[in-house]
Amino acid sequence: MAKEEAIEFDGVVEEILPGGQFRVRLEGADSSILVYTAGKMRKNRIRTAVGDRVTVEMTPYDLTRGRLIFRHRGDAPPGQPGAAGRRQYRPRR
To answer: Could you give all domains of the chain from N- to C-terminal order, each with its CATH number?
Structure first.
C-alpha cells in the first residue's frame, strides 16, 4: 500500500502556541489551522514569528491540522511584523 500524498498550502502565522505549535491562516481560505514544527525545522532551530509566510503540509484525512515545513525569508506581507522587521544578529567585536 502506497503512502498518501501530502497537500501543501501557503499561509501566514497568526499566533504562536506552546510546544512548537502555531495557528496559521491559509491563503485563500477563511479558516485557520493548527500546525506543529517539522523535525528539520526544529533540529536546525528555525525561528518563526507572527506574520511570517510559511508553507504547511497536510494530510487529506485531517484538514484542521498540519506540519510547518518551510518559512519564507523576508516575504512577510507589508504592514505586519515578521521576517522583514527583524534585526540581523551581529557579533560584538
So the answer is: 7-79 (2.40.50.140)
